[in-house]
Amino acid sequence: MSSQLRRRENAISPPASLLLNACFILLSLACILPVILVVIVSFTHIDSLVSEGYRFIPSRWSTIAYESLFKDYGTLVRAYAISIGLTVGGTALSVILMALYAYPISRQDYPFRAFFTFILFFTMLFSGGVVSKYIVFTQVLDLLDTYAALLLPLLIIPFNVIIMRTFFQATIHPALIESARIDGAGEFRIFFRIVLPLSLPVMATMALLGTIVFWNDWFNALLFIRTEEKYPLQYLMLRVLNDVQYLRNNVQLASQNPELMSNLPDESLQMALAVVCMGPILLVYPFFQKYFVKGLTVGAVKG
Predict the structure, then answer these.
(1) Which pTM does this prediction carry?
(2) Residues 232-237: contacts with CB within 8 Å, 24+ apart?
């Protein structure tokens, strides 16, 4: 009886429920409509963009942006395969390494806990800069024009390690670890057989964040990759966009080929690039959505 009364007291009144639903619908539209507009603009003719601007229903449609983008189909497929491989491999390795870092510093009995926590916070506040990073990766490690140069800089993200450490502190009770140790389990067995299965929400959250970081990375490719066959998708898209902008800004070339320049997509090509690049992330996110909020908020009070 008391539980029924409590549910009635906590129930939302119909006007408040209607208002909340209306707010959520507006927020959902604010997130979805820009994506729809990006897709529509990618199929809009350049003349319609110049005369009418961005519209949900343009007067002229065109696929020239995608025709220009997929003209060299093999290069695009190769870049896609490279980005998918880097994202999948880098995310898996990154999550495991960050968990191996976060778990010891979450343990009160670890003697070097304060030292490694300080190192973690220090790297969040200070960075060696691009020049020192380039020297280390090209001259010290000799990783110029290798895929390792795209993986190593993103494997350990200090803020994500802190989130994982907080989750371990709030979720993994010391008595659970002590009982496993009494039963004869070693540290690695405790970590892989007990800690990781209980940490699925934060692991999935870090996997989602890592997927976004690896998939959207183009700057490291700009620094370290010299061979065109090794370009990831994001950097290849950047090169294509820069080439189109160069052609449009080259006055001499424009005067020699006026028909080519009039049909050359610019803004529609940018939107087509966005559509091509955001596809895998839109497919991946639903699989991690149910873990995302829980992985970030569990242990937030304990901090």
Answers:
(1) 0.79
(2) 232/79, 232/82, 232/83, 232/86, 232/150, 233/76, 233/79, 233/80, 233/82, 233/83, 233/276, 233/277, 234/83, 234/277, 236/75, 236/76, 236/79, 237/273, 237/276, 237/277
